[in-house]
Design goal:
Elements (H helix, E strand, L loop, with lengths): L1 H16 L1 H23 L2 H24 L5 H22 L6
Helix pairs in contact: 1-2, 2-3, 3-4
Keywords: Membrane, Transmembrane, Transmembrane helix
Length: 100
């Protein structure tokens, strides 16, 4: 029970002291979860939603770094760039599903 209380308090602490980073963490986690579900089902909406979460998280990271730089700005920039690259490849993979 103590372990659960520790994790719960840590979660509450992080949401209160750094809300943008917490939202980015949630968006990045949803990106990975939707990518895994797309791998199993191959339903294109999962991939589109995953790439849109990745774009949103990357834009949020870059804006947060411009407003208030963190202790490790290079790591955040590289992660944002990787999320952009993933989302563009994912959207390119969705192109055959679109019927005009």
């Amino acid at each position: 029970m103590r372990l659960c209380q520790f994790w719960w308090r840590t979660l509450i602490f992080s949401t209160q002291h750094n809300p943008p980073e917490f939202v980015e963490l949630i968006m990045t986690s949803l990106t990975m979860a939707l990518l895994v579900s797309w791998e199993f089902t191959h339903n294109w909406p999962y991939l589109v939603l995953s790439s849109s979460f990745a774009i949103g998280a990357a834009v949020s990271m870059w804006i947060r770094e411009m407003i208030r730089p963190s202790a490790h700005p290079r790591v955040v920039q590289v992660l944002a760039l990787l999320l952009f690259i993933y989302s563009f490849y994912a959207l390119a993979d969705v192109a055959p599903y679109v019927h005009l």
